[in-house]
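Quick illustration, no need to memorize.
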Amino acid sequence: MAVLLAFATATDKKRIVIDAGHGGHDTGQTVNELTESVISLQIAKRIQAIAEQEGVEVILLRDDDTYITLNDRAERINALNADLLISIHINSDIDGTTEMGKRMIIHDKESTKAKSIRLAGKLALAMSMETDFKDTQITTANLAVLRLTNCPSVLMNIGNIKNKKERDYVTSAAGQEAIARAVVAAVGE
């Protein structure tokens, strides 16, 4: 009788890259002193901290408020041989009256479409279970960070920076913790 033992090695671990959107002079959406680039970075750092506790490898594309071009982002992600990419952004409207919840955006390139859709679905479900954001749209768009990367990728637009309720949530410690836990739950499976 033969016994087969399987051991997880470091190479069995998924390599997840988190892209905190914008950065440096590209602040993204801004309300008062709050910028999308800083909020997305705070959430990205929280994701990394929780992922480390759960034994999930997360690499931050940027860990400070610096600007990285879209082409450089894609080149770095591809050089890392990432298994998954999640790009974190905060949504916006003109006057802040719309509660936007969350929106998952993928690119429809054949090489990664099925896995990107599956990742978006897992993220949407986890976010619905863990956060105050219940409604989700999953859409496609021709965004450079998605188009130029070789791995399954999702750009997450979380909340509306101009809507006080959603802005307060995505900037609060509790809101960022819930968002981060949802992301880690989705990618840790």
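The chain is about 40% helix and 20% strand.
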